[in-house]
Amino acid sequence: MSFLIISAFLAMLSIVEIRSFFGLTVLTVSLYYSITYGYGYDWINYMDIYDHIGVQSYFVFFNEPLYHLLMQVSYYAGLSFSTFCALITSFIYFSVYIFCRNLKNPTLAFFTLFSFLGLYIFTEWIRQGLAIAFILLGMAANKNKKISFVMLSLAVLTHFAAVVAIITPYLIRSGNGNTKKTLLLTTLFMSIAIYFIYNPEVLSAIPLLGDKIAGYSQALLDSDVDFLTFILSSKVILGYLVIIFLFISFKNKNSHVYSAIISLYSIIITRMVQVFIRIGYYFVPAMVVSVDEIDKMQHTGVRTSLPKLSYIALIFGVSTIPFWNPLFGDGSKYYLTLFSTKNEITEKIGHKCMIINKNSERHTILRCL
User: Fold this and answer.
1) 280 and 286 Cβ atoms separated by less than 8 Å
2) Which of 38, 134, 219, 322 sits in a 20 to 30 Å window from 118, CA-based?
3) Among candidates 337, 328, 285, which has minimal Cα distance to 31?
4) HSE-up of 86 (CA within 13 Å, CB side)?
């Protein structure tokens, strides 16, 4: 429920858009989600890895080295897992602040990021959240190519799929007469990626990448959901298409509107295959930057345009989508704090396991299997 309350609050602040309140807003949200954690399920696997650092035989389910290195540093420094989560979450929201602060509509940008990424990325898939934090810092330093390259490298070392963020600058500039070319290239890229997912043996000889593709391929087979059924049943794709139609309806469209359309289209096509869903989140910052430059988004208060109000309403709708699924709607009701005891943690894990086993036939939470 806290996610919906905060999203609604940010939606209202996006209409007013008082820049002097922006820093305090990010700080408040950051403090809340740094003190609390465990809204989803992945944290259980990460906690078990954290508690078994130093045990060579314990299985670490990811290959990227940076996040595991940070866990080791934190563990040997004597910090609890909850403190480690708090530090990572604080860094994520710090990067959000740095990314948004110089935009024309920083609160609207924060609202959009939180609506798309707040639950899934900044709270549940926190390793990818850290990777996106590095991407945001790199984009904030876009005039310094060295810093941008370093941030992208750190992101890839945290979550390999972050390599797709290399096309982010191209997405942002795609409205400058390159719309058709970008749509074609994006569709071609996704088609090739889908081919590799269904034929993982083609890349099997490439270290790390081959293992990742093989893992995605196996996950696709395990999901037992065919391509067409998954697309037609996706409420998220429908919601994103409505936002695209809103952009298309804008009169006197400038290049930034087309960039926003292409960025959102890139997000949509990554949802065509279930195992690619996470990749699309790397394109959200490009959409945020493009939307920030659209003329119709510049008015605030009583002068706020109807297109901007429509955009805010639709983005708020996006923020509610995860909670339509009882897996997250019910699961997010049980969370922990920095001060939770071991007994409380065990109790919450029990609740989580009951919910995920009830609502998901196949999952990867080892403690709940």
Assistant:
1) no
2) 219
3) 337
4) 14
Q: How far is it, in rounded angstroms, from Cα 13 to Cα 121?
A: 22
CA dist., res. 97 & res. 167, Å (int): 22
**83 or 227, which is more confident:** 83
CA 253 to chain centre: 28
Q: Are the CB atoms for 7 and 114 separated by under 8 Å?
A: yes
Average pLDDT, the chain: 88
* Residues 162, 131: Cα–Cα separation, whole Å: 7
The 10s digit of each residue's pLDDT in 117-137 is 998 899 989 999 999 999 999
- Would you say residue 173 has pLDDT above 60? yes
Q: Closest Cα to residue 94, out of 33, 43, 44?
A: 33
CA-based radius of gyration for the chain: 20
Q: What is the mean pLDDT of residues 65-87?
A: 96
Asked if the model's pLDDT at residue 184 lies above 60, the reply is yes
Most confident of 69-78, 163-172, 295-304: 69-78
* C-alpha–C-alpha distance, residues 172 and 93, integer Å: 22
Torsion of CA 11, 16, 20, 25, to 10 degrees: -20
Q: State the pTM of this model.
A: 0.91
